[in-house]
Amino acid sequence: MAADSFFIVIEGLDGAGKSSLARQLRDSLAPAHGNRIQLTYEPHNPSAAGKHIREVLAQRIKSSPRALALAFALNRIDHLDTVINPFLCAGGKRVVICDRYVLSSLVYQSTDGLGMEAVYQLNRWARRPDLTLYLSVSTRNCYSRLRNRPSDRELFERNLNERAEKYGAAIALLRGKGEQIVELDGNPPFPEVFANANQALQDQGPAWLHIIQPPLL
User: How distant, in Å, are the alpha carbons of 25, 58, 80, 105, 140 from that of 155?
Assistant: First the structure.
């Protein structure tokens, strides 16, 4: 791994504001780091099995939980091999911000017949994030935000109370394996959420990772 690279993951329930925070962090870091900042996401559509996963999430086709967990693992290794690792290892101080990663798989792909540890083992080769920011948002706020989305509801955009509990267990599992995960309150207005995320980057990130331009909120 490149010594000057930094891999950030943004996590949370559907409707937590992950994508908005990821984009704002990218835009705010860009003045200092230019094209050495990359924003990406999972499941990654162009990578292996990406289109299949999107079809399952849109409920246009069906898949067993085990097959879907394997599809996400395949998508992730291709995403790492073709996008994330080449970018981070290209030289200079580089940052990748990823909207969802292994933590999401532990929550969304684990079932009664496929536990979190089993899902983790499917992804045990995945590059470890340098920092994961988890947006903790009440399920009431998440549902309210999801109702304002124009698209049809996806497969996992329900049963959020159960998934919130699973996030707690999944975070504990990854912390037990040495991962750095910071939980942020995602319920306040976005400027406050962003300020707390920025502070977490200053506290946990390398000295060269800094924001020199406040976001246009």
Answer: 28, 6, 25, 14, 18
